[in-house]
Amino acid sequence: MNDHQMTSPYITPALFDFLRELKQYNDKAWFEENKQRYESVVREPLLKFIADFAPHLAKVSPHYEADPRKVGGSLFRIHRDIRFSPDKTPYKTHAGIQFRHESGKDVHAPGFYLHLEPDNVFTAIGVWQPDAETLGKIRDAIVAHPTRWQKIFTDEKFAATFKLEGDQLKKAPKGYDPNHALIEILKYKDLYVFTSFTEQDACAVDFIERYARVCQMAKPFIEFLTTAIGLPW
């Protein structure tokens, strides 16, 4: 195997080195000085990852998009929105990719999120902070199809890979039976499944295929959420 085959064309140790330094020198002057580095080790390779992930994503669902545009696509901006934040550091110290449903243009719609941060690489698949109407539709679908929901989580491979995460209410949501068998699930305000990777995993030459397998494994879960809110699957 030659060196070229052993090196990932997308995520490399150089990406994590850049983000480690960015955390240390999080200011405009440093970023401007290292902008070319950001382009060559972070933005360009990740846009390539997004473009090359499109055929893998299409096998999960043709209605989810891998959008490799520089702005407004699947890659999140590195600039932080500091308008309402007490933390005024201008840049995020991680890179984030989200593959969204074609009908959902915001981060709260169902999606596949990949987080790349030094010592913190993970994927979160599902919905994060959905609005009340969306969340209500998902809860109603769980109540209407409890067996289908439970079957997802009792699948051995799925259970070994994913953990259900998200914020939960202290009490049963209004309008739902507090004694419902799935009441602990109905208390969730976000519904996403989570699995983590190491930096070495992310830099491996076959990571794009491995990530595709993880997304494929989450298919019954994201399909449940997508159809529950009335979006095409």
CATH architecture label: 2-Layer Sandwich
- What is the total tally of β strands? 6
CATH homology-level superfamily: Protein of unknown function DUF1054
Secondary-structure element sequence? HHHHEEEEHHHEHEHHH
Q: Unreliable segments (pLDDT under 50, ≥5 consecutive)?
A: none
Assess the beta-strand content as a share of residues.
5-15%
Might you state the CATH topology name? BirA Bifunctional Protein, domain 2
Question: What's the mean pLDDT score?
Answer: 93
Strand order of the largest sheet: 1-2-3-4-6-5
Q: How many domains make up the 3D coordinates?
A: 1
CATH class: Alpha Beta
Structural class: alpha+beta
Q: What is the CA-CA span between the terminal residues?
A: 40 Å
What is the number of helices? 11
Which descriptor suits the 3D outline?
Answer: globular
How big is the Rg?
19 Å
Q: Which bin fits the share of residues in helices? A: 40-55%
Major β-sheet profile:
6 strands, antiparallel
Structure write-up:
This protein is an alpha+beta fold. It has one domain: BirA Bifunctional Protein, domain 2 (2-Layer Sandwich), CATH 3.30.930.20. It is 45% helix and 15% strand. The chain is built from eleven helices and six strands. It has a six-stranded antiparallel beta sheet. The longest helix is centred in the first third of the chain and has 26 residues, at 35-60.
